[in-house]
Write a structure and sequence with these properties.
heterodimer, A: 226 residues, Rossmann fold, two-stranded antiparallel sheet, 5 helices, globular, B: 82 residues, alpha+beta, Mth169, Chain: A, three-stranded antiparallel sheet, 2 helices, ATP binding (chain B), cytoplasm (chain B), ATP-binding (chain B), PurS (chain B), purine biosynthesis (chain B)
Chain lengths: 226, 82
């Protein structure tokens, strides 16, 4: 039996289908989860996909965080279940305080959409074990509120503990402090990043590379070996 | 009905590019002498029943957990005189 990877759909989520497809291509059983259901349908891991849940009203991720499904996701994540937040999903994870810091409007005030080079800074998390430490990957990035901020003490703590999981290369596309593209919690089961690995899993589309597939093969290996 | 206002502002150390964009546009529109602009949010809450200590405590909790993200924002709760 293979592992079940759940993908949550909120009103305004856009990338749930791509995330489900990426999970399937990696060999997992993709499971759709609905924001109003507390039931996670016995999934082994959860992906919070990108988009504009609840229209980004109030703040990106601020309303989604209080949806019924998130009650269970937060509880299970604290108990060790792997959770990956991509883009809007990353914003939801910071609003839910599963990850430190917050996301703000891009410093240049424009929507950004580009192929983005990243460096994998931590290849020990549940979602990055199939990468090499320091590996450079290229995946699409598309966001309006992608500027990662946290106070200096939190940033120093993240750096010291190796919890900066991904860093932007070439350009800092949104003004994120210390070029941070993604972070992990201390346990390594909760990871959030702004760029979109689920859009880079097949050579035909996206960047023409499959650099993002490693997120999904990483988690699958971890679950199968668990 | 009593009104309570919650003002939410980005913390002073957080860069506010929207406020900066507004500030930069001002001279072009003939509004001189504005050194800095910070943009925030104002919530007007019409409260059912009396605005007593208990009601204000709940509104404070609401502001802290939902209306503001205290990682990046400060808030002020004010009761508006009728």
């Amino acid at each position: 039996m293979t592992s079940r990877i759940g993908v949550v759909t909120f009103p305004g989520t856009l990338d749930d289908q791509d995330a489900l497809r990426a999970a399937r291509l990696a060999g997992a059983e993709p499971v759709s989860l609905w924001h109003r259901d507390k039931d996670l349908k016995q999934v082994d891991a959860v992906v919070l996909a990108g988009g504009f849940s609840y229209g980004d009203y109030l703040r990106a991720g601020a309303i989604s965080r209080f949806s019924p499904v998130m009650e269970t996701v937060v509880e299970q994540a604290r108990a060790g279940m792997p959770v990956l937040g991509i883009c809007n999903g990353f914003q939801i994870l910071t609003e839910a305080h599963l990850l430190p810091g917050a996301m703000l409007r891009n410093d240049h005030l424009h929507f950004v959409c580009r192929d983005q080079r990243l460096r994998v800074e931590n290849a020990d998390t549940a979602w990055t074990a199939d990468y090499e430490q320091g590996q450079e990957i290229s995946v699409p990035l598309k966001n309006m509120d992608g500027r990662y901020v946290a106070d200096e003490r939190t940033l120093d703590e993240l750096e010291a503990e190796g919890r900066v999981a991904f860093r932007y290369l070439d350009v800092n596309p949104n003004g994120s402090l210390r070029d941070i593209a993604g972070i992990t919690n201390a346990a390594g089961n909760v990871v959030g990043l702004m760029p979109h690995p689920e859009h880079a899993v097949e050579p035909l589309v996206g960047t023409g590379r499959t650099d993002g597939l490693g997120f999904f093969t990483s988690i699958l290996k971890k679950l199968v070996n668990a | 009905m009593a009104r309570v206002v919650v003002d939410v502002m980005l913390k002073p150390e957080i860069l506010d590019p929207q406020g900066q964009a507004v500030q930069r546009a001002l001279p072009r529109l003939g509004f001189e002498g504005i050194a800095d602009v910070r943009q925030g949010k104002r919530f007007e809450l019409d409260v059912e029943g009396p605005v007593d200590d208990a009601a204000l405590a709940r509104i404070h909790e609401m502001a802290e957990t939902f209306l503001a993200n205290t990682v990046i924002e400060d808030f002020v709760v004010k009761v508006e005189e009728a």
